[in-house]
Amino acid sequence: MSTAKTIALASATEIAAAVASGAVSARAVTDAALTRIDAINPAINAFTETVISRARAMADAVDARRRKGETLGPLAGVPFAVKNLIDIAGVTTRAGSKIGRDNPPATRDATLVRRLEEAGAVLVGALNMGEYAYDFTGENVHDGASRNPHNLNHMSGGSSGGSGAAVAAGLVPLVLSTDTNGSIRVPSALCGVFGLKPTFGRLSRAGAFPFVTSLDHLGPMARSVGDLGLAYDAMQGPDPEDPAATTRPPQFVSSEIEKGRDDLRIAVATGYFTQRIDADAQAAVDRVAAALDARMTVELPEATRARAAAFVITAAESAALHLDRLRQRAADFDPAVRSRLLAGSTLPAAWVIRAQRFRRWFQMQVERVFESVDVLIAPATPCRAPLIGQTTFVLGGQTLPVRPNLGILTQPLSFIGLPIVAVPVWLDDGLPLGVQIIAAAWNEAKALRVARALEQAGVVRAPIAKI
Amino acid sequence: MTNSPSQTEADRAALLDASMTALGIPLAQEWRADVLMHMNLLREAALLLEGFALDDAIEPAPIFIP
Fold it and tell me: Based on the number of CB atoms within 10 Å of its own CB, is A466 exposed (0-12), middle (13-18) or buried (19 or more)?
């Protein structure tokens, strides 16, 4: 841990401590990260941009503050990157699209980029993603697929595929990403890293290109629970530029994470969450449940309909968002995205509004569930990472398309904005799986406490890929 | 005349053409089959929702505040 090269592979918490103590400079950590990105990114295709001058200037500013004896932020010198739908001043926000590349560069940073840099973190670049975030695979016809660092022939998951790949490959310890129907949790699961999708409204979305404004969330991905908490705390706070941003005071979690899980009532989600998953996904849940001695089970009512409602709302809102682009540049879309947007354009309003009414009903039912439990456990994906290019898989005896069904387990939960930590489980030497640790709204700390207890017990972990 | 939603493939094709015309979206012939397939998936999802009775007092939740 004594050199910049080795510390660039460390956690955000360790890097910030080393930079604050002067054991290593932020500039050296940043240069080591940029060197590693140069060396490894061609194999995994995680980054679409690097911002080298900006990163070095920010790192130098951190080092200058330390030399003056100033107190550094909690993320001092920590390299981070953002999904390429999040605004970086001076960089065109492409949102995984060909069309977006014709836009002028963003004139300022997204709110959460600013907040991470205010905490001392060093932005190094932007990350590959599925076009307009309408994706669970990590594939992209314009930029190429981001590849799973643990096996380059397999999917990274989407839509934040570059995010999952960058963290798993040790290019950066921290990324900022988005999750509408599972886009943080699916790549976290497939790439074997930790991800936090906070409560809807908790983190500002200002400066992030929207997908489905009823459902869009931002959140961090990292290789440790502590790093998720550190980043989450740095990003909380009201923001009048996001109409959905909460005005509740921040609830900081870093001081809560180590409190253990002994007083928490933990249950395993059954029914919908045990159907259409393979034996590996079930084994991952069983392992986590056994480690937590979670013997209670809970069935969320009408989860199949919740997923259906999220599916309808997603198609309708995204189609409306992209209407002008469909009129003018339909041929420039990823065909797999275009088909769904065009189909969404035909939806009767009555179906969309019914889906939004069902959302209200489902949220009320799930609130009742959380009167008797604190945390729920469910698989994050139905299986391990499929092969890149794979279009179908067999689940529960049915042959199903991969692209929509990788997210069937995440979609009903983000639908009602619950905070969820995705934790990586390794059953063997093969690819990882993910398990969702789900809490009631505004209870991120409970989910993170359970995740941390599992991490301490060695049940979940996010090793850097051998690449 | 029926009292429940019903779509044949021809109905969906007609809905697709009418929607594209109404919204001014050009539709290439080679895109149609995929779009119609996705329309059918959406129809199935919507019918699941139609099959679940909701009290009239349940309001939509487009901006969701937990």
Answer: exposed
Chain B residues whose CB is inside 8 A of the A416 CB are: 64, 66
- Pick the closest to residue A145 from A345, A427, A385 (CA basis): A385
CA distance A346 to chain B (A): 6
Q: Is B53 on the interface with A (CB under 8 A)?
A: no
Model confidence, pTM: 0.97
Provide ipTM, 2 decimals.
Answer: 0.94
Q: Are A137 and A403 in contact (CB under 8 A)?
A: yes
- Candidate from B25, B39, B64 with C-beta closest to A200: B64
How many Å apart are CA B23 and CA A253, to the nearest integer?
47
**Which DSSP letter does residue A154 get?**
B
Total CB pairs under 8 A between chain A and B = 129
- Going residue by residue through chain A, which has 467 residues, state the pLDDT in tens, using 9 for 90 and above: 457 778 879 999 999 999 999 999 999 999 999 999 999 999 999 999 999 999 999 999 999 999 999 999 999 999 999 999 999 999 999 999 999 999 999 999 999 999 999 999 999 999 999 999 999 999 999 999 999 999 999 999 999 999 999 999 999 999 999 999 999 999 999 999 999 999 999 999 999 999 999 999 999 999 999 999 999 999 999 999 999 999 999 999 999 999 999 999 999 999 999 998 999 999 999 999 999 999 999 999 999 999 999 999 999 999 999 999 999 999 999 999 999 999 999 999 999 999 999 999 999 999 999 999 999 999 999 999 999 999 999 988 889 999 989 999 999 999 999 999 999 999 999 999 999 999 999 999 999 999 999 999 999 999 999 98
A445: helix, strand or coil: helix
Give the residue from chain B lying closest to A301, CA to CA: B52
Q: Give me the residue from A309, A330, A343 closest to B49, CB to CB.
A: A309
B38, B50, B55: best mutation site toward chain A, by most A Cβ within 10 Å? B38
Subunit contact B46:A199, Cβ cutoff 8 A: no
Contact flag A342-B65 (C-beta cutoff 8 Å):
no
Q: Which of A260, A255, A257 is nearest to A225 (CA)?
A: A257
